[in-house]
C-alpha cells in the first residue's frame, strides 16, 4: 500500500533528536524522501543511516540553519538531490534557560530568537520558491507555550507565538500560489526537555507540567510525528493557516487535571518507530556552543 507521503520530498529541521527524529522516521515510512537537517554535532547521520537501513531514502544536512548561507545550502541540497521540495518542517528549536524575565541574559534571548525564529524564517524564505512550484506545505513546530505563554521561559514562549503568527501570515500570503502553511503545537513531549535528568526542569516543574495536561502524561515524539505526517499529506489539503494543538489538553487544563487521570490514561501508546535520540537528546554526547 502506498504511504501517505509517497513521492514527496521533505526537509525536516532539528531531525537528529527528539520530535524531529520521529518526524524524519515517520515521513520516510510514509514514503517521503527526507533531508534530515541539524547542527554539526547532532546525530543526524545516525538518523539517516537508520532510515536507510529500513529501506527509506534520506540525506543529511549538517549546519546552522539560523545562518543564511547554511539555510540556503540546506534547501539547495534537497532540491539538487531530489529535484523538488514538497514539504518543509521547521522543527529546530532551543529551550536554554529557566528564569524570571528580569534575570534572563540578553545573550540567551538572542540565542532563542536566532534558533527558534531566525532559522524558521530563513528556511521558509529559501524553500518558498520550491514550494510554490510543487504546491507544497510548510509546517512549523509551535507550542502550547506560544498560546498560553511560558512562565519562567518567557522568551521561549514569545518565540513560539511568533511562529504561530508567522505561519498564519505565510498561509494567507502564499495560499494563492497553492502553498499551505500551519503549525503543529505540542504540549509536553517525552524528549530530553521535559525530564529533570536531561532538561532544565526540576522535580516540581516536571510534576506540574504533567498535571497540567488532561491526560496526565507526556505525548510521545511518535504521536507528534503522526500529526505532522497527516498535516503534510494531501489528505490535509484544506488545512492551512491553522494551529493544531497536539497537547494532551494542556490548553484547556485548569487546576492540574492530570493528577486525576486514571493509570491507563497515563500510559503512553506502544512505539512503532525505532527511535534512538528522541528521549535523551544530546545527553552524554559531546556538543559545542550550546547554551544548555
Ligand atoms: N519537548 C517538548 O515538550 C516540546 C513542546 C512544545 C514544542 N516543542 C518544540 O519541538 C521542537 C523540537 O523539540 P525537542 O523536544 O524535540 O528538542 P530537541 O532538542 O531534541 O530537538 C531540537 C533539535 O533542533 C536542533 N537545532 C536547534 N537549533 C538549530 C539550528 N540553528 N540549526 C539546526 N538545528 C538546530 C537541536 O540541535 C536539536 O537536535 C522545538 O521546536 C520545540 O520548541 C517541544
UniProtKB/TrEMBL annotation:
Question: Where is the stretch described as Disordered?
Answer: 270-292
State the protein's name.
Answer: Short-chain dehydrogenase
Keyword entries, A-Z: Oxidoreductase
Key word Coiled coil present: no
A GO MF term: oxidoreductase activity
In the record, which residues are listed under signal peptide? none
Note the CDD domains from the entry: SDR_c
Q: What is the lineage of its organism?
A: Bacteria, Pseudomonadati, Pseudomonadota, Alphaproteobacteria, Hyphomicrobiales
InterPro entries in the record:
NAD(P)-bd_dom_sf (IPR036291), Sc_DH/Rdtase_CS (IPR020904), SDR_fam (IPR002347)
From what superkingdom does this record's organism come? Bacteria
Amino acid at each position: 500500500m502506498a504511504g501517505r507521503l509517497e513521492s514527496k520530498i521533505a526537509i525536516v529541521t532539528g531531525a537528529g533528536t527528539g520530535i524531529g527524529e520521529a518526524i524524519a522516521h515517520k515521513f520516510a515510512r510514509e514514503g517521503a524522501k527526507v533531508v534530515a537537517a541539524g547542527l554539526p554535532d547532532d546525530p543526524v547521520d545516525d538518523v539517516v543511516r537508520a532510515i536507510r537501513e529500513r529501506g527509506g531514502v534520506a540525506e543529511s544536512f549538517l549546519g546552522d540553519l539560523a545562518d543564511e548561507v547554511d539555510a540556503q545550502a540546506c534547501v539547495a541540497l534537497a532540491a539538487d538531490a531530489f529535484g523538488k521540495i514538497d514539504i518543509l518542517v521547521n522543527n529546530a528549536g532551543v529551550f536554554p534557560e529557566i528564569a524570571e524575565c528580569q534575570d534572563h541574559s540578553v545573550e540567551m534571548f538572542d540565542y532563542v530568537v536566532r534558533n527558534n525564529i531566525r532559522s524558521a524564517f530563513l528556511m521558509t524564505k529559501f524553500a518558498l520558491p520550491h514550494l510554490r512550484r510543487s504546491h507544497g506545505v510548510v509546517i512549523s513546530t509551535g507550542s502550547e507555550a506560544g498560546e498560553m505563554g511560558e512562565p519562567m521561559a518567557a522568551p521561549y514562549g514569545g518565540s513560539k507565538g511568533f511562529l504561530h503568527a508567522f505561519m498564519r501570515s505565510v498561509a494567507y500570503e502564499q495560499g494563492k500560489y497553492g502553498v499551505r502553511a500551519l503549525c503543529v503545537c505540542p504540549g509536553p513531549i517525552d524528549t530530553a526537555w521535559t525530564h529533570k535528568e536531561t532538561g532544565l526542569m526540576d522535580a516540581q516543574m516536571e510534576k506540574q507540567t504533567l498535571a497540567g495536561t488532561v491526560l496526565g502524561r507526556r505525548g510521545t515524539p511518535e504521536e507528534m510525528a503522526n500529526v505532522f505526517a497527516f498535516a503534510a499529506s494531501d489528505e490535509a489539503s484544506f488545512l492551512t493557516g491553522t494551529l493544531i494543538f497536539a497537547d494532551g489538553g494542556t490548553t484547556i487544563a485548569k487546576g492540574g487535571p492530570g493528577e486525576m487521570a486514571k493509570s491507563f490514561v497515563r500510559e503512553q501508546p506502544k512505539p512503532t518507530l525505532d527511535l534512538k535520540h528522541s528521549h535523551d537528546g544530546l545527553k552524554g554526547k559531546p556538543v559545542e556552543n550550546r547554551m544548555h
